[in-house]
Batch of 2 targets.
Target 1
Amino acid sequence: MLNFEYYTPTKVVFGKETEKRAGELAKAFGASKVLVHYGGGSAKKSGLLDRVCDSLAEAGLPYVLLGGVVPNPRLGLVKEGIELCKKEGVDFLLAVGGGSVIDSAKAIGYGLYHNCDPWLFYDRKATATGCTPIGAIPTIAAAGSEMSDSSVITNEDGWLKRGYSSDYSRCRFAIMNPELTCSLPPYQTSCGCTDILMHTMERYFSHEKHTELTDSIGEALMRTVMHNAHVLMEDPQNYDARAEIMWAGSLSHNGLTGCGTAGDWASHQIEHELGGMFDVAHGAGLAAVWGSWARYVYQEEPEKFAHFAIHVMGVPADSGTTEETALAGIRAMEDFFRSINMPVSLSELGVHPTDDQIREMAQKCVFFGQRTVGGFKVLHAEDIEKIYRMAL
Ligand code: NZQ
Ligand code: ZN
C-alpha cells in the first residue's frame, strides 16, 4: 500500500427535500452574497432553482443568477461569471446542476479569488493558493465534482479540455437529494453510471499490492452501481436506486476508492480529448474507449484484470487461464455498457475521426510531448493513437 492523504472536507446533506437547506448552509459557511450558477434549463424547469432561491431569501441572503453552463463547460462563461461576481460583490458560489455547473463554479472561484484568468491553472502556468467558497446541489449522479478536488474546463480557443485539481476548490457542502435526478433522460443516467464506474476503475487498475480494503470498497461500489443502473432501466423513478447511485457517485471520486493506490486515469485523459474536439457526453465517451484501453494494457498484469472479472463482473473463477478470465471480464464490462445503451466504440458514439484528428487528439492528450498518461501502462502519443484506432 502506498502512503496517502485522504481529505474530504465537504459536508454532505443527503436525502429528500434537502435543497430547502441551501440558504441555512450557505450562511453557515460565511456567505453574504451568493452567485447561483446553473445550466441549460433543467433546474429551472423542475422548479429546483425557485426552491433554492426561496431558501436563500428566507436566510436573508442576497443572490445573483448566472445560467447557461453547457456540458463540457466553457471558459467564456467562466470569465463572464468572474466579472459578474466582481461587479456584484459575490463571496459565495452555489452550483445547482451537473458536474459541468459545479466545475464552472470552481473555475469562477479560482479566477475570483486570484483576480486572474483561471485558464492559467488549467494550462499549468500557475498554482492555486485559494478559491472562493463553493456549495453544490448536484442534479445528476456522475462526475462526483461535489466531493472531488477536480474541475474540467474547455477553452474555446483551440478546443482544449483541461482538468485542474486543488483541495481549495472542494465544495464546503453538498446537498444531495436523489429525487432531483429522477428527471434525467435515460441516456444521462447511463452516462452518469458509466462515469461513476470509471472513477473507481481508474483507481482500481493499479499495480500496488496489499490494497485489499481499498479494492474491496471499489468492488462493492462497482457492483452496486451496475445493479442499480439495471433497476433504473426498468424503473427510472426508483428512489432507492437513485440514492444508491448518487452516494456511489460521491464516494467514487472523493478519494476513498484510491487510498493507497497510484491509479491509472488514461481512459479519462483519452476521453477528454474526444470531449474537447467532438463535444461528446463524458460518460459515453468513456464507455466508447474503455474496452480498447483495457485490451491494450491488460497484459501488464493480467492477474488484476482476472480478479476484476471474478469479483466485479461475476466471471466464474474456473473459466480458463488468467488471460482468458481477464479478457472475459473486459467483454463482460462492455456487455454491461451495452445493456445500459452506452456505446462501446467511437462509431457507436457517433464520432468518426480522421487520421489527422486522431493524431491531433493524441498529441493534445500528451500535452504535445510534455507528459505521458496512465499508470497501469505508461502511454505515449503513439500508444494513444493505437487505442483511438482500436476503438473506431
Ligand atoms: O444543463 P441542464 O439543462 O441542467 O442539462 C444537463 C446536461 O444537458 C442535464 N441534466 C443535469 N441534471 C439534470 C439534467 N437533465 C434533467 N434533469 C436533471 N436532474 O444533463 C446534461 C449533462 O450535464 P453535465 O453537468 O454535463 O453532466 P456531468 O455531471 O456528467 O458532468 C460532465 C462534466 O464533468 C467533467 C466532465 O469532463 C464533463 O465536462 N468531469 C468532472 C470531474 C470532476 N470535477 O471531478 C470528474 C469527471 O471525471 C469529469 O471529467
Ligand atoms: Zn469522469
Target 2
Amino acid sequence: MSRKLIIGNWKMNGSLAANEALVRALTSAGLAEKPVDCAVCPPSVYLAQLAGLLQGSSLMLGAQTVHARENGAFTGDISAAMLAELGCKLVLVGHSERRAGHGEGSEQVAAQALAAVRAGLLPVVCVGESADDHDAGLMQDAVTSQLAPLAAANAEAGGTLLENLVIAYEPIWAIGSGEAATPQYVSVVLECIREWLAETAPALEEDKLPRVLYGGSVRPGNAGELLALHACGGLLVGGAALVAEEFIAICTAAAAQA
Ligand code: PEP
C-alpha cells in the first residue's frame, strides 16, 4: 500500500494566535517521521503566516480555492501562480461550499484544476452527491457528471492533468453533519471514481492512478475503517482538522495503513 494523504480544510476559521498554536502543535507531533503526507488549508489571508510557520516542516500548505485565469480584473480572486509563490503545494477546487455559495460549476472547477497544474500545484478536485441524489441512489451518476469536464481539460493539457491531481469524494449530506458515510457506501463510490479515471486515462497504470480521498465527518473514531478501504488514498478533514489532537490522531491512523 502507498502513503495516504490527509488534508485539513480549515474553512473560514482561525486567527493569527489560534493558527500559530495549532501549527505548533501539529509540527511538534512527529508526523514528519511517519509514512503519511499531511497538509493544511487555512483561509487565504493566513497563507503567508502559515508559510512562515511551516518553514522546514513536512506539513504541506494548501489553499481552499483558486481562480482559473492567470491574472486580470477579478476582484477578490487569487491566481495559482500567487499560491505557488507563497509556498502552497496544493489547492482545493470544487468544494461543495464553493459550488453552492459561489456558483462554481464543474466546467469552472476543471479550468481551476488545469490552472493549478500549470502553476505546479496539486489540485484536489472535490465531488459529491447532494442529499436528494443520495436518497435516490444516484451517487455514482452525480459524481461522474461532476468529473466529466476533467476529461476535456486533461486532453487540453496533453494528458498531464489526470496524472497530477487528487479527487476528494465528499458526499454533501455527510459534510459537517457528524454522520460519515459508511465504509461500504464510500467503497462503492471510490471504486466508481477509480474506474472513471482508468477509463478516461487508459495510459495510466493502476498504481499510477491519482489518489482518491474521502471527506465528510471524519473523526479519529472512524478514520481507520475508512482508510482501510482498498480505494481510499486518504482523507479530507474539516471540523476535526481544527483540533490538534484529532488531526494528529487521524494522521497517525493513516501512517499505520501505509
Ligand atoms: C469538508 O468541509 O471538507 C469536510 C470534510 O468537513 P467535515 O469534516 O467537518 O465534515
